Amino acid sequence: MNLLLQAETALSETGEWIANGFFYLIATVAVVAALKMVSTKNVVHAALYLLVVLSAVAATYVILGAEFAAATQVLVYLGAIMVLMLFGVMLTRAKLGNDEELDHDQRWIGSLVGVGMLAVMSYSLWEFYQGERLPSEQSPQRTQEVALEIFSTYIVAFEALSVLLLAALIGAIVVARKD
After folding, report:
1. Number of C-beta neighbours around residue 177 at 10 A
2. Can you give the pLDDT at residue 53?
């Protein structure tokens, strides 16, 4: 009996180590792609790097056991928002390739804002949790529970958001088209 308990403990620790390894790999890919996204001079390449970042976020949701959030990330952000961004790039006839006319003298302001946002978010999370650890036995919400909540309680907000995205797409087409 003792040997069985030791085997279960070793298997649990191995599974946790593998999950942590996958998380660190995905986080590294996301951070590298995010840095490339903000440092590239090619608009289309920046959109493709954003696609990698959003995919890494979806993979992180899968590791956390939030499959509904992962599916939403893929459908809404990777599907709809990226198509909308690429339509915006193509319809506004942005230059493809490197654009030397872009002003990159404000990088220090962006870095300062990023560090400030990191500090505010870190302080807020620390104050909210007060150093507590989340319980590991808590099971994540399943897709059915989240879907019932969205499509019953929050259906009006969900539909308003879809109309807003449609209006943004129509507005981009109207602004970009020639008279």
Report:
1. 8
2. 92
pLDDT in tens, 15-40: 677 778 888 999 999 999 999 988 88
What is the span of the domain harbouring residue 18?
2-98
Looking at residue 32, which CATH number applies to its domain? 1.20.120.1200
For 128-161, the pLDDT digits (tens) are 877 677 666 656 567 777 778 777 888 888 888 8
